[in-house]
């Protein structure tokens, strides 16, 4: 049992009343764990046919599954190949309720480590734009790595304060997700640190910050756009309370009724003494009512506002040598040449998503699809390119089985003795891309990134 703060216990008793006993008993239960199949890389049925874990379907997410305690999906080659993302089951409800449509422009304002962003990206199916932002530099780096691992091509990763983004993207996005930093009460079973840091003062600090973030988000949403607000906390001050305050200032927003599933509960206007019964349309997930941790979700629609201001991006062309080096690579090793708006970031070549506006003055970690880098008149493909390619899109590949010793050697960064065509080869695990290797004289030189290599396995 988690050692809960006394103020928290008192507060929850008052809030939950007759439900309190059932609620508090949930702390004696182990938390459940989930993975979400990355449908950008593999169909659900194909994953189930090669899946080595004990999976049970999560009712509210087609691609979501509980796995058993003895499973270790984080340490499996399929994880490194981006075939799934390990995500808390209740957190998957946000992506499931977001009603993402391919082609939309979506901003995830508080995105690290990337659970919800990678879910949204899968639903965009490579069409449209996803801007995934994280305010903390180290967390933004992890976010960027997850975007890469999941093979996402149309995502720009930024490391900005929401206020600075708001100045740039006026009325721009069809959808914005604010998965807000919160007091984390819904994660106490899973995250002891959140429990240790909890205080009534922190709840109040969090709600002020949440309102600030929503304020910035509102400026970036186009008319008829959808703002999704979520937290992993129970406190009404950070949930119904924040939405109530936001709606008081922003008459141009209304609460939408979202889809519900068995075990989902609704928010309560009464908990904050509000007369706005629309607050009861928000969603609450409780650990004693379903197999998952605590979550709150509100879906708001902007019914009025200014139209988007078009901001043109300066388009720069690549020099002839770079074009030649890139084309030499694609003609030799790929079945097609990825085209789009190229951007050179230092020596690194990217394709920027079509709908992206100017990146000027923004801290950008990933301006789009990373193709590779130029090195002394040759082009070297990136790990991001490897992870976004299908086996049918390359000329040379090396097929390895997930249970073979060769796959372990590859992930450890060792060279492999193998037959095949000379030059760049896409290394596949059970047919799904994992990284590059360069073959010469039957030896595959390992190009699996040094920072990702498995040690002491
Ligand atoms: N959406 C993420 C996911 O699904 O993986 C989880 C996001 S977490 C609940 C909230 C994030 O907000 C944290 O990564 C935190 O660093 C970030 N954050 C903290 N302060 C912030 C602020 N003032 N503005 C925006 N984001 C902030």
Kindly list the characteristics that best describe this protein.
alpha+beta, Archaeosine Trna-guanine Transglycosylase, Chain: A, domain 4, five-stranded mixed β-sheet, 14 helices, 25% strand, globular
Task: Draw up the topology in text.
Elements (H helix, E strand, L loop, with lengths): L5 H11 L3 H6 L7 E5 L6 H7 L4 E3 L6 E4 L9 H4 L3 E3 L5 H6 L7 E4 L6 H10 L4 E5 L3 H13 L5 E4 L3 H7 L4 E7 L12 H5 L3 H21 E11 L8 H10 L3 E3 L9 E2 L16 E3 L9 E8 L17 H14 L7 E5 L2 E5 L11 E3 L2 E7 L2 E4 L1 H6 L8 E4 L4 H7 L4 E2 L5 E7 L2 E9 L2 E4 L11
Bound molecules: S-adenosylmethionine.
S-adenosylmethionine binds next to α6 and α10.
Structure description:
This protein has a domain at 392-457: Archaeosine Trna-guanine Transglycosylase, Chain: A, domain 4 (Roll), CATH 2.30.130. Helices cover 28% and strands 25% of the residues. It has 14 helices and 23 strands. Strands 5, 6, 7, 8, 9, 10, 11, 12, 13 and 16 form a ten-stranded mixed sheet that branches. Bound molecules: S-adenosylmethionine (SAM). S-adenosylmethionine binds at residues 91, 109-116, 134-136, 139, 162, 179, 181, 209, 213. Residues 91, 109-116, 134-136, 139, 162, 179, 181, 209, 213 line the site of S-adenosylmethionine.
């Amino acid at each position: 049992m988690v050692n809960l703060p006394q103020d928290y216990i008192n507060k929850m008793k008052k809030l939950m009343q007759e439900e309190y006993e059932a609620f508090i008993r949930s702390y004696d239960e182990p938390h459940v764990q989930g993975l979400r199949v990355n449908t950008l890389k593999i169909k659900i049925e194909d994953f189930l046919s090669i899946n080595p874990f004990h999976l049970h379907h999560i009712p509210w997410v087609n691609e979501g599954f509980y796995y058993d305690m003895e499973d270790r999906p984080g340490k499996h080659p399929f994880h490194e190949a981006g075939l799934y993302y390990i995500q808390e089951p209740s957190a998957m409800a946000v992506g499931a309720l977001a009603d993402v449509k391919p082609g939309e422009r979506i901003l995830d304002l508080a995105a690290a480590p990337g659970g919800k962003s990678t879910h949204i990206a899968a639903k965009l199916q490579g069409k449209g734009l996803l801007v995934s932002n994280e305010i903390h530099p180290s967390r933004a780096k992890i976010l960027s790595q997850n975007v890469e691992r999941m093979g996402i091509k149309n995502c720009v990763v930024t490391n900005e304060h929401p206020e600075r983004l708001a100045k740039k993207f006026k009325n721009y996005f069809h959808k914005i997700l604010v998965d807000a930093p919160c007091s984390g009460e819904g994660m106490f079973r899973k995250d002891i640190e959140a429990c240790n840091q909890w205080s009534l003062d922190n709840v109040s600090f969090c709600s002020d910050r949440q309102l600030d973030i929503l304020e910035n988000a509102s400026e970036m949403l186009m008319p008829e756009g959808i703002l999704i607000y979520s937290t992993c906390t129970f406190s009404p001050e950070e949930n119904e309370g924040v939405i109530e305050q936001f709606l008081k200032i922003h008459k141009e927003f209304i609460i939408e009724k979202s889809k519900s599933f068995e075990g989902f509960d609704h928010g309560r206007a009464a908990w904050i003494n509000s007369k706005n019964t629309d607050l009861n349309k928000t969603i609450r997930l409780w650990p004693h009512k379903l197999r998952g941790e605590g979550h709150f979700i509100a879906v708001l629609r902007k019914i009025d506002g200014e139209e988007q201001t078009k901001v043109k991006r300066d388009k720069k062309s690549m020099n002839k040598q770079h074009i030649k080096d890139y084309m030499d690579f694609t003609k030799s090793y790929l079945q097609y040449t990825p085209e789009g708006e190229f951007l050179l970031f230092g020596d690194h070549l990217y394709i920027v998503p079509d709908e992206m506006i100017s990146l000027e003055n923004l801290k950008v970690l990933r301006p789009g699809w990373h193709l590779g880098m130029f090195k002394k008149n040759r082009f070297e493909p990136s790990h991001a390119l490897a992870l976004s390619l299908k086996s049918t899109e390359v000329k040379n590949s090396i097929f390895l089985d997930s249970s073979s010793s060769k796959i372990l050697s590859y992930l450890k960064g060792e060279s492999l003795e193998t037959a095949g065509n000379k030059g760049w080869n896409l290394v596949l695990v059970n047919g799904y891309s994992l990284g590059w290797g360069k073959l010469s004289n039957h030896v595959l030189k390992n190009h699996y990134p040094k920072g990702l290599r498995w040690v002491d396995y």
